[in-house]
Write a structure and sequence with these properties.
It is found in: Cell membrane. By secondary structure, the chain is of the alpha+beta class. 28% of the residues lie in helices and 34% in strands. It folds into 4 domains: 1-56, no CATH class; 75-81 and 366-443, conserved putative lor/sdh protein from methanococcus maripaludis s2 fold (Beta Barrel); 88-100 and 245-365, Elongation Factor Tu (Ef-tu), domain 3 (Beta Barrel); 105-244, Helix Hairpins.
């Protein structure tokens, strides 16, 4: 430590003490060259004193700042109460509507001429409706010929039966031998075979005649008709028209193979399938396949069989009807198909739809917003605000999550969780609710 003192005498004595006061105070006579140096040392001491005085107020300001930090106001946060509802665990994918049955109508005759076309392009037809009539003159003539042949052979059969009876009578009187009876019996048996062949020929001719009238094998909608009266057609010709079943209708889609185990476990019961059609002005686009959650009536995608409007698109309810027997090794997906009632023709073959396959339902599940979750290593937690407005962290377990809400364990229904401002909250710190702050701010200036 360096102590400096400047005497008030005219001779101005300087005392230098590194550790303790000097016992001798030199004068100008003792140290002739000391007077100029004394002024330099005095100036240095003065500068040091000023520097120390400047440091003092700075320490005071730091203490004031620390005191201010200790009295920081509560952080303003937004909270949302945890809700309870039934959550549907489901898989979402994009699919394509397909007819469950499609038939290409072709003539079965080797060659025929179209006589009449009784169907229009795009016509709805019931099962068994008459579509096309072919020229049937040749088939009718063939049927008449087969029937005439059958009639002739039946006459021959009747004559043989009479001959057999007469021969037996003569044999009983021993006018003829038994071999004569056997001969007539053999002729009769052969004629019975001829009659059977004739009857088969008649049936064949009847079938050929029936094939000149083409009927729809199912109820559906016709495509474009490709023939007109007078056209020559055959079994190898292009289809006359295509009939597609519209009600019920199918939807094919694929899901990742990671969903297969859960899908097979849930397959013990009929699995609900919901299809959502693009709304007016909405451009179809592929939807990412993956799990999702929805609630009863509150989640996205629940619809009814009549087609309800939600988010600009109609929804239809159906059931899963088919799971492919192999995983596509190229894409790592499994092909599925669902069946939907389609009385209003809301689904059209080839149309893009978004589908949701419900695997199971979590009854009375507690949900919190996705924004409330805080990741701490492998744990997830939320900040719960109690009645005392103290924020406490709570570890939760995710049961199922997708979208804006997550079903969790570890939170009771109605508990308030922080969704905004949690980055400014410390465990156990007092918080201020955003709604209360906004109300206070609104009521304050309005006097």
């Amino acid at each position: 430590m360096l102590d400096c003192a400047l005497s008030s005498d005219r001779s101005a004595h300087l005392i230098l003490s590194p550790m303790s006061p000097l016992t001798h105070s030199p004068t100008g006579a003792d140290l002739p060259g000391l007077r100029p140096r004394s002024f330099l040392l005095a100036g240095g001491c003065l500068a040091l004193a000023l520097l120390l005085s400047a440091c003092g107020p700075s320490d005071g300001a730091g203490s004031a700042a620390a005191a201010s930090g200790a009295q920081r106001p509560p952080a303003q946060v937004s909270v949302v109460p945890a809700r309870v509802r039934d959550v549907s665990v489901s898989v979402e994918a994009s699919g394509t509507a397909v007819p469950l049955n499609t038939v290409e109508i072709r003539p079965r005759l080797s060659s025929a001429t179209v006589h009449e076309v009784l169907i229009r392009d795009g016509q709805e037809v019931p099962r068994g409706a008459l579509l096309v009539r072919l020229d049937d003159r040749s088939e009718r003539a063939a049927l008449d010929k087969a029937r005439a042949q059958l009639a002739r052979d039946r006459v021959t059969l009747a004559d043989l039966k009479r001959q057999l009876q007469r021969t037996r009578d003569l044999a009983d009187q021993q006018f003829v031998t038994g071999s004569a009876v056997d001969t007539i019996q053999a002729q009769l048996d052969g004629q019975l075979a001829v009659i059977a062949a004739d009857e088969a020929g008649v049936r064949d001719a009847e079938v050929a005649l029936s094939q000149t009238v083409i009927r729809s094998p199912l109820a559906g909608r016709a495509g474009a008709v490709s023939v007109h009266p007078g056209a020559q057609v055959s079994a190898s010709s292009p289809a006359l028209v295509t009939i597609s079943q519209m009600d019920p209708i199918g939807v094919t889609f694929t899901v990742p193979e990671r969903e297969l185990s859960g899908l097979l476990q849930a397959r013990t019961a009929a699995l609900k399938l919901t299809a959502r059609l693009p709304g007016a002005g909405e451009r179809p686009g592929p939807a990412a396949s993956g799990p999702s959650a929805s609630g009863n009536g509150n989640g996205n995608g629940n619809g009814n069989g009549n087609g309800s409007e939600r988010d600009g698109g109609a929804t239809l309810d159906g059931e899963l009807s088919f799971i492919d027997n192999a995983v596509d090794s190229t894409t790592g997906t499994v092909r599925l198909k669902g069946s939907f009632a389609n009385p209003k023709r809301q689904l059209w073959p080839g149309q893009y739809v978004s589908v949701r396959l419900t695997l199971r339902t979590l009854r009375d599940a507690v949900e919190v917003p996705q924004a409330a979750l805080v990741q701490r290593g492998s744990e997830r937690s939320v900040y719960v605000v109690g009645p005392d407005l103290l924020a406490q962290p709570r570890v939760v377990q995710i049961r199922h999550g997708s979208g804006d809400w997550v079903a969790v364990d570890g939170i009771a229904a109605g508990e308030r969780v922080i969704v905004e401002g949690k980055q400014n909250v410390r465990p156990g710190a007092r918080v201020r609710l955003a709604a209360a702050a906004a109300a206070a701010g609104a009521s304050g200036p309005a006097r």
